[in-house]
Amino acid sequence: MLESPYRHDTFLSNLLIRVYSECGKLDEAKLVFDGIPRQNDYSYNFMVHAYILNGSLDLAKQLSFLEMPERDIVPWTGILQGFVDTGQPDEAKSVFDRMPQQDVVCWSAMLQAQARNDRVDQAKLLFDRFPQLNVVSWTAMLGGYAHSGRIREAELLFRKMPQHDAISRVAIMNGYAEHGRLDLAIAMFHSKPERDMGDYITMLSALAETKRLKDARALLEKMPEQSPVAWTIVLASYAQAGHMDDARELYVAMPAKNVVASTAMVQGYAQGGHIRDCEELFFETMAERDSMAWNSLLGAYSQNGLASNAEAVFL
């Protein structure tokens, strides 16, 4: 494209920026952008999105705030959400305050930035000023209260919500489970006439975290549909507790094994000093191995004083 007769076509160049950015080729995207003779709003928006998508938020800010001839709300919102997603609430606030206009999407992103970073009081101030509350804003505020342990306030807000979705129900169930009110989480779970996968995953996680392994396994067996995530949660909880016979039984029965479940098994065997089982599973059973899996094997050797085994594998 850079050498083709179409390289000066703004429409095609904009599309190519998008393609390069989604493939992680930021330098190539910037070359295309710089080569457009008449850059338009879409050119800038695509390039800003490319920076955000590839984690270069400072460059996205520079392009939007210093170089972009006319700024619409699209790049501003993208940069704001980028800072929210990367856990930078102060940067998000800086962008929010400078925006020429703020719609409900921007307000929701800003509320999420405060609530996700334990700034619940600041989030509540924003919530009270919200121009048009929607299910996203209600749920973000609810999640902030629940995550920070302010369960009473979460309950009151939950009751005031005009409508509940799966995310809001999971948020308050998580809050109950994380802060010692598993009984309330279980009661809410069983009170629901219909349960989706998010409800089951939340309940399984809560049971696993509180070492109620038999209850977690019983719930797994009652689930209406299979989920690799659900199987992995229960299997990992048995492995972490040292119940490797049960963990192995679950691992063998898993409908679709994954690297996370396999790594949990490796870590469980290592914890109990079962290096032969650890190696057999790692080298003969695992279909794929990522960096976490290799680190787990190295950790197994280290925990059991087997430096020579580690050298044989890694050197």
From TrEMBL:
Keyword terms of this UniProt record: Repeat
Taxonomic placement: Eukaryota, Viridiplantae, Streptophyta, Embryophyta, Tracheophyta
UniProt-recorded name of the protein: Pentacotripeptide-repeat region of PRORP domain-containing protein
Top-rank lineage group of the source organism: Eukaryota
Organism expressing this protein natively: Selaginella moellendorffii (Spikemoss)
GO molecular function: RNA binding
Signal sequence region: none
PPR repeat coordinates: 40-75, 134-168, 227-261
GO BP, sorted A to Z: RNA modification
Cross-referenced InterPro entries: PPR_At4g14850-like_plant, PPR_rpt, TPR-like_helical_dom_sf
